[in-house]
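Q: What structure does this chain adopt?
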Amino acid sequence: MSLTGLRKHVRILERAGLVTTEKRGRARHCHLGPKRLDDVSHWIEDYRRFWDASYERLDEYLETLKEKEGQHGHGK
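A:
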């Protein structure tokens, strides 16, 4: 990755509040922003629960369809 590309990515992370940077001499030091990472972690966990529940409902629905198919003799 080029230095320009890296800087662009770091700026995006800064704007999102996920990292902070400070200039020390010629170098820039990046630090994680733990509060923002907690926010992201909670958001991801909420969506994980949502999708887990959705897949469980889909599994139940498909199982119901299989049972109905078996009752009506539409199996193989």
